[in-house]
Amino acid sequence: MNISSSDYANNGTNETTSASTSCYVNDPFSLKLGRVIAYSVVIFASLLGNTLIIAVVSKYGRARKTINLSVMNMAVANLIITTVYMPRLIPMFLVGSVWLVDGDFGYVLCKIIPFLHSVAIIASVLTLLTSSLDTFCAVVFPLKHLFTTRVSRFAIFLTWVLAIGARFPYFLSLRTKTSATGKQTCGSSLNKLFNNKDARDIYYTFLLVSFYAIPWLMIFIFYSTIAITLKTGKTRDKKGLQLCV
Question: Which InterPro entries match (predicted)?
Answer without folding.
Answer: GPCR_Rhodpsn, GPCR_Rhodpsn_7TM
